[in-house]
């Protein structure tokens, strides 16, 4: 297996930009309408909006989502943190199960797992013990964090990660307005969602990965959006964002660091670490992205003014990693369509230009999640030829169901065709058992 050395890590970036630790990180998310575990109940202080499964009646699907949240998601976000302690919940994640993923990284860039056992009970006391004397970093704020020493105040983080903040902060967003669902007629012909000329966009405030975003470009999608808004209204959702649809030519996600107020890279001079191109479905759902290391200088120059304007409108107290989604229309005008003032899914590939481009001559890199059956570690054997060459990197693996696993995979390519070819090879191998791969040689 090829040894992975990242260009830098989040821990190194924080130290170099005046953000003082020591740090301990939690990468979990929680919902206001489902318990993840009897000892990890639903969030009532800082709840997130709906994702696809929580309201489903299928208990098997709900159990699957719980295992993804408690298993794969925190692992995928830990890759690239570097020399920091990271909280993981047992029994979904064990120290032994993390050894292989950590072993592929150079020792000084490995994070340090801290295991909290959900089945042991008294989880809040366990969390108090492991965070004592450390500054807490989090992916999503939760009520229990209010009593801890956090880099960012949980309440402030909750507010600035809401899409409502895009509008109220004065960022350069598409023309938008706030609609109160509880005061809106969904049935009548005069409903704003029925009379609004096509196309337009509706967004929930706090739904992740583009869930809760409706690109209403035809009457069928209008019908789907109306049905969704009616459901949200009945569940108590109050406001949504209604925006102009931008006919874009570029959909970019910019990943940057805001240093301490007295550092060179404060919010008026953010440090851009990477500009990725988003991969979306036709419905606007985020499914990943790719980066072109050879084009970074030009892309960073292109978005610099918009990024600097965005960070200048963020609270003066904000420090750390963040991302902003920028769309560019046919006239070249740039609009901010989302702000993720937290860790981003694309963070690892922003640190891998040396691994893919400098060392292997692969200017492009892409990432995605894959499901597969068999043993959780079978992925290393199935993808062994390209893992050995370093063209494929497995950043996280987890068991998410009976004989079902998920993995986050990053791969490099010479061009778009090469990226697509490697992705096809990975998907083909992941869909088959290791015995089948060995038998056919494919």
Describe the structure.
With about 450 residues, the protein is of the alpha+beta class. It folds into four domains: about 130 residues, no CATH class; about 70 residues, Dna Ligase, domain 1 (2-Layer Sandwich); about 80 residues, D-amino Acid Aminotransferase, Chain A, domain 1 (2-Layer Sandwich); about 70 residues, Ribosomal protein S6/Translation elongation factor EF1B (Alpha-Beta Plaits, 2-Layer Sandwich). The strands form three sheets. It has an eight-stranded antiparallel beta sheet, sandwiched between helices. The protein is globular and about 60 Å long. The two termini are about 20 Å apart. The C terminus is likely disordered. Keywords: ATP-binding, Nucleotide-binding. This is ATP-grasp domain-containing protein. InterPro entries: Asp-Met_ligase, ATP-grasp, ATP-grasp_PylC-type.
What is the element layout, followed by pairings?
Blueprint lengths: L9 H7 L6 E4 L32 H20 L6 E6 L4 H9 L8 E6 L5 H9 L3 E4 L15 H7 L2 H6 L7 E5 L11 H4 L4 E4 L9 E4 L2 H16 L4 E6 L3 E11 L12 E10 L5 E7 L3 H17 L7 E10 L4 E7 L6 H4 L2 H8 L3 E9 L5 H5 L1 H6 L2 E10 L2 E10 L2 H15 L3 H7 L2
Parallel strand pairs: 1-2, 1-4, 2-3
Antiparallel strand pairs: 5-8, 6-7, 6-8, 9-10, 9-12, 10-11, 11-14, 12-13, 14-16, 15-16
Task: Point out poorly predicted stretches.
Answer: 433-442
Q: What is the number of E strands?
A: 16
Average pLDDT? 90
**Strand adjacency order, main sheet:** 13-12-9-10-11-14-16-15
**Which structural category fits the helices and strands?**
alpha+beta
> Residue share in helices?
25-40%
By oligomeric state, this entry counts as: single chain
Domain tally: 4
Looking at the structure, what is the overall shape? Answer: globular
Report, as a whole number of angstroms, the end-to-end distance.
20 Å
Biggest pleated sheet = 8 strands, antiparallel
**DSSP strand content:** 25-35%
C-alpha Rg (nearest Å): 22 Å
Q: What is the number of helices?
A: 15
